[in-house]
């Protein structure tokens, strides 16, 4: 939705697609991503398309959640003028349990997306292109059938996509699957990868374990090989990063003949919170400037009970105020007294605060926050850097070790939290890490670097900046495509 708002701000008329199962689940969890209610059109439609099995029958059309959502003043301003966002929900015909499977796709999804493109053409609003997330490579087939270009959207950093793009070489050259123990977090003699044009050698430990140690026939590996193939066929690749932080990665894409464009970081809009959620902001108002360590591990990573206890003891021993997010799907607030060390809540009352959800952008922007103990997911990484807050890096999965490497060893805006041999948390490492980030010389240097990057981000996303200009180029190119006479 962040990209949709930016594109609408350019002047695009945007059709944003949900599929029915995801839409229903997000709505049930009150997690639907939509522009502010006051910006939505009032007219609702109940049209629906249902497609199941190998043969799909078109009824009246896709569900339209809102006729037109004007982009509010929070979106960036471009010369193209403000457009509108239309939300569509398409039937996916998932069987029970399909939504919990990684990367599920059905014939109905392909057919209903194609039908929507056809219907929009018949209505006089022919889509100029389709922007597809990298994790939906199946949309390439739809765009080829519809005769429109597919544009790839990679929501993480350029280096992460570059590693996926080169997976085929790693397997064909026999480098992967890697020998060794998947449970060992760090090797004394890591395998150095030297095969990517334009990049210096880097450790294979930065590649997710699910890829490093799996055979090429593994379903997970096969999916990412498909993603890499789709990148080659896309008209261009939009990457939610900035050229200024990853120049070598973007040069490497150029060496591969891939048109890649930094368009980020796309700014997360601040949402309206309820009283329970703003309580943490009131608590932060009582804390000294740059004194609080904010702790959150994103929406996927889960800590074991043992790790929660180790983290708790380490935070308490650090002596620093802490704001700690423990998601309800991990441990409920009612269960906390049984999970946390005995007496922890009583001893840290006033010194620390535990909540199940935080308005993260607002928290990181608060002057009391001096550091972010994070899993280093890319969204959390860029939100912290946008606020000029250094990170204490505790990567867990996916590309998070790569993000940690960049933060600590390349950009200098973070410190890596030491972990156990299997990558777990240890109380003494937590204590030392928090003290180093908030009170040590290395932490002061990391904060200075984080604030330097904050200014770079502000510049690149404003008019005249590189990321801003790349979005403007997309608009100009698509307008030129629209003006071409149809064959």
From TrEMBL:
One of its GO terms (molecular function) is UDP-glycosyltransferase activity. InterPro entries: UDP_glucos_trans, UDP_glycos_trans_CS. Keywords: Glycosyltransferase, Transferase. Its EC number is 2.4.1.-. Belongs to the UDP-glycosyltransferase family. This is Glycosyltransferase. It comes from Adiantum capillus-veneris.
């Amino acid at each position: 939705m962040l990209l949709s708002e930016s594109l609408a701000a350019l002047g695009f008329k945007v059709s944003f697609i949900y599929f029915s199962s995801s839409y229903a689940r997000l709505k049930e969890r009150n997690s639907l991503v939509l522009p502010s209610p006051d910006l939505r059109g009032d007219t609702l439609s109940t049209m629906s398309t249902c497609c199941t099995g190998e043969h799909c029958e078109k009824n009246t059309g896709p569900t339209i959640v809102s006729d037109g959502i004007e982009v509010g003043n929070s979106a960036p301003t471009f010369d193209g003028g403000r457009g509108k966002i239309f939300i569509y929900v398409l039937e996916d015909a998932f069987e029970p349990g399909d939504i919990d499977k990684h990367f599920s796709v059905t014939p109905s999804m392909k057919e209903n997306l194609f039908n929507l493109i056809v219907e929009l053409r018949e209505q006089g609003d022919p889509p100029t292109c389709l922007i597809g997330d990298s994790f939906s490579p199946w949309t390439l087939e739809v765009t080829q059938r519809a005769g429109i270009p597919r544009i790839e959207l990679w929501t993480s950093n350029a280096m992460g996509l570059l590693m996926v793009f080169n997976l085929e070489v790693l397997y064909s050259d026999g480098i992967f699957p890697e020998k060794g123990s998947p449970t060992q977090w760090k090797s004394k003699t890591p395998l150095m990868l030297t095969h990517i044009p334009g990049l210096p050698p880097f450790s294979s430990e930065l590649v997710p374990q699910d890829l490093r140690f799996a055979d090429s026939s593994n379903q997970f590996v096969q999916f990412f090989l498909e993603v890499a193939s789709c990148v080659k066929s896309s008209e261009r690749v939009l990457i939610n990063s900035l050229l200024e932080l990853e120049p070598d990665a973007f040069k490497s894409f150029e060496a591969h003949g891939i048109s890649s464009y930094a368009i980020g970081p796309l700014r997360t809009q601040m949402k309206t919170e309820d009283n329970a959620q703003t309580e943490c902001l009131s608590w932060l108002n009582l804390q000294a400037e740059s004194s609080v360590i904010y702790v959150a591990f994103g929406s996927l990573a889960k800590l074991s009970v043992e790790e929660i206890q180790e983290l708790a003891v380490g935070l308490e021993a650090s002596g620093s105020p802490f704001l700690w997010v423990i998601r309800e799907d991990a441990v409920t607030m009612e269960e906390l007294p049984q999970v946390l060390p005995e007496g922890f809540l009583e001893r840290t009352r006033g010194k620390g605060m535990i909540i199940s959800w935080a308005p993260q952008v607002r928290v990181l922007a608060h002057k009391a926050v001096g550091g972010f103990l994070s899993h280093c997911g890319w969204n959390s990484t860029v939100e912290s850097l946008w606020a000029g807050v250094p990170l204490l890096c505790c990567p867990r999965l996916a590309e998070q070790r790569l993000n940690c490497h960049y933060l600590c060893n390349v950009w200098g805006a973070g410190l890596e939290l030491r972990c156990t041999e299997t990558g777990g948390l240890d109380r003494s490492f937590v204590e030392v890490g928090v003290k180093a980030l908030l009170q040590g010389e290395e932490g002061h240097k990391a904060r200075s670097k984080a604030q330097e990057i904050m200014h770079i981000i502000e510049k690149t996303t404003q008019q005249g900046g590189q990321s801003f200009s790349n979005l403007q180029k997309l608009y100009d190119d698509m307008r030129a495509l629209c003006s071409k006479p149809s064959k």
